[in-house]
Amino acid sequence: xxxxxxxxxxxxxxxxxxxxxxxxxxxxxxxxxxxxxxxxxxxxxxxxxxxxxxxxxxxxxxxxxxxxxxxxxxxxxxxxxxxxxxxxxxxxxxxxxxxxxxxxxxxxxxxxxxxxxxxxxxxxxxxxxxxxxxxxxxxxxxxxxxxxxxxxxxxxxxxxxxxxxxxxxxxxxxxxxxxxxxxxxxxxxxxxxxxxxxxxxxxxxxxxxxxxxxxxxxxxxxxxxxxxxxxxxxxxxxxxxxxxxxxxxxxxxxxxxxxxxxxxxxxxxxxxxxxxxxxxxxxxxxxxxxxxxxxxxxxxxxxxxxxxxxxxxxxxxxxxxxxxxxxxxxxx
Amino acid sequence: xxxxxxxxxxxxxxxxxxxxxxxxxxxxxxxxxxxxxxxxxxxxxxxxxxxxxxxxxxxxxxxxxxxxxxxxxxxxxxxxxxxxxxxxxxxxxxxxxxxxxxxxxxxxxxxxxxxxxxxxxxxxxxxxxxxxxxxxxxxxxxxxxxxxxxxxxxxxxxxxxxxxxxxxxxxxxxxxxxxxxxxxxxxxxxxxxxxxxxxxxxxxxxxxxxxxxxxxxxxxxxxxxxxxxxxxxxxxxxxxxxxxxxxxxxxxxxxxxxxxxxxxxxxxxxxxxxxxxxxxxxxxxxxxxxxxxxxxxxxxxxxxxxxxxxxxxxxxxxxxxxxxxxxxxxxx
Lengths: 332, 332
Fold this sequence. Notes:
homodimer; Isopropylmalate Dehydrogenase
């Protein structure tokens, strides 16, 4: 069995290190083919692990007390905080001690550190964050979700290639459809970036490019992979989460507003819950930074134990499916 | 009483001219202070109006048989199709026969024609589409929703000024909060455009600028007015509609999936409906193209009679509130 070694940032996220530890124990229990190394305050982690039931041969601790905050300049923080969990965790990937690094910490620092420490795959101009979002048809991969702003056309062309490989490895579709996020359906629409990227995607016979995708087509699953500049992708991803949460909260308030609607709410609870699971971002793990010589996964800052566990398990699939080897082959 | 004269595009939209006529009759009935002129196939309109009950002194017909399609180049179509409802309707505003023009037709043609025929307010670099979107706190004005791509910083600064005037005129808030749509909350985040616009907004003491707004804050109503380049605004607006429709459809399917959940669905119907009205884009009319020497309102292509009626009534409020005079004053 291929044992995947995963470095885990125990300092990152809104609920660290408690939910990180919970997530690690859940992941170890669910998947035998992984080994975890937690980077954080070693004493604190040891104390929190004491009394818990787990296989100590599969969980290791490395002291890394420094924490990179969201408000810090990512590049400066990566250079200065050598004893941070992010720098030490990424180094362990670079040096081959770990296959992957997972963090719910500062997005900027994870992105900057991924490129500066782990390094890009040869030929890749810019790594990109790919996130799965739920749609009517299943899931769509949206990328870039925020690693790059003011992207050049060649970046987006590479996002499409990497996204195609990642989607087919995880979802199983052999030739996933690729759409360019745009403000009109017809060829030639959009801003300068879209006008420049469109022919690159269209002329690439390896891609199953289906043209422009408008905002209204995202939720319908208009394409398996939707390509965008990281500014637009990030706004769309966060708005999707915000809007879904808000609508569901409003529905909950509405259906519990009268005594008979409360009875109604009880009757619909089960099928509604089933449906809501599909719209739960915690099911989809984290967002890998595709294009690096190693795997770096960014989990949501507000991840709960289940979400972070799924981000850990994602690394096993990524490794088993040899996504990076496939990306390299694709680029040759 | 101030009677507002409104030119209506009877050729535009997915369900023209039937729902346009229905909308006009509803609007005339609901609001005494308007007079309508329909631009379309005069004979057809006459035939469809025959037998309907309405005050014929308040509805006029002008023959304009040409239709501008969504697939046409907007600028070329405006130049060539002199007998189109869009060109003739916009001309009637330019020549002072009408105070406003409402269309559910080609967005590109309405935008291009608005600028080319009606013309900009002196000092305004680029007109912008402003759309109200429902949020937890009420409504947020998002602009630009697609009139401008690759915007310059000064455009966005003007969008903020116009948006502030429009929001306070329609919603009543005297100093609406202004947010810049961005991918991080801290100052200095984002793409080059955001970095350049931020200080312009911050240094404008007439604006109630509250800083960056992230995607996840949109649905919560993070700011009364959210400013963005038209590419991003258009994607967000259309994605909001698509996602809300999709979620509601999924909920409907879920709650009618078993016999007891069907009973539950009946019990929650009333409060749920009340809540859904707030999320119904048809309540909010159309999107005005702010910054023109006259009022041009773009209604959704798939508008039903109620949505288009609201777009017509919006013109009355816009005129009564003297929004354009206020924008001009603000710019002085």
